[in-house]
């Protein structure tokens, strides 16, 4: 399984907003696992409630096609190979040179409560 995209928090944001960064990552990780472990109908109903509650006159009809979060790692944990896929693609497209970027320098699982090497375990 492969995760096709990730949220990005800049190093500056992480440095300047450590509590907010941790809370965002923890809440996102828990939401991913909730969606994985809840009945499909319950997840869809929650999405529809959230969308309707925003008061933006949004259409909820696409939610009936929801199948999964599309996130491979437990709680959204990122694997180096997922980043490497994008780097390889950018190298092939001529946007990057080989070894210009190191995958491990582009992501962290440090704030994710599902990271077994983090200071605290999953909630």
Structural overview:
This protein has one domain. It has four helices and no strands. The protein starts with 10 loop residues before the first helix and ends in a 31-residue tail after the last helix. The mean pLDDT is 93.
In short:
This protein is 43% helix and 0% strand. The chain has helices spanning 11-16, 18-37, 40-53, 80-92.
Helix content: 40-55%
As an assembly, this protein is single chain
Radius of gyration: 17 Å
Written as H for each helix and E for each strand, in order along the chain, the element string is HHHH
Largest sheet: none
Distance between the termini: 24 Å
Strand content: under 5%
Give the integer mean of the pLDDT values.
93
Indicate the structural class.
mainly alpha
Notable features of this structure?
123 residues; mainly alpha; 4 helices; 43% helix
